[in-house]
Amino acid sequence: MGGPLIVWDGVFSAAEVDRIIAIGDGRTRERAQLVLAEDAMGKKRVTDVSWLERDAQTQWLFARLEQIVQQLNRQYYKYNIYNELRERLQYTVYESSQGGHYDWHVDHGAIGPDARKLSISVQLSDPSSYQGCDLELNFGDGIVPAPRARGTVIAFSSYVLHRVAPIAAGVRKSLVAWVSGPEFQ
Known about the structure:
Elements: E1 5-8, H1 14-25, E2 30-31, E3 45-46, E4 48-52, H2 59-77, E5 89-95, E6 101-105, E7 110-111, E8 114-123, E9 130-132, E10 135-138, E11 143-145, E12 153-157, E13 161-164, E14 167-182
């Protein structure tokens, strides 16, 4: 699928998805934090995250995502981006027992001298293991739900308004990466 939302089905095999989940579940989880005062009561975002640094265990994952990003950028976006991912990967877990969700937001922003340009989400959970909790994007002419197939990569410009709808049952896991480059000119 082309356009502002790029979907690449089956990028990661079931074994690779299981490996990502094992890495994420093996790291210390923390409640996701926002710097916005309005989230003081946890209304905007309820999810747990683990941060994946580039290390011996994750090098393959960073390299694979960088390859995917470069291909998607060449074919669709043509942004001036860096060849490597400069931020940690975010392993996210939304649980129905906690009322997991992440309200409407954008990822775009300056990270030091860099700007986030692309947001990447990798669907890790089997879609039958949870209800609700769709990644939804608002392109101005309506809300578009992202596919839920396990191993799928979803890419969009970081300035696109998006959310993770409330989870009704089960647990949803995903991996998020941000691609940066020099500030937009």
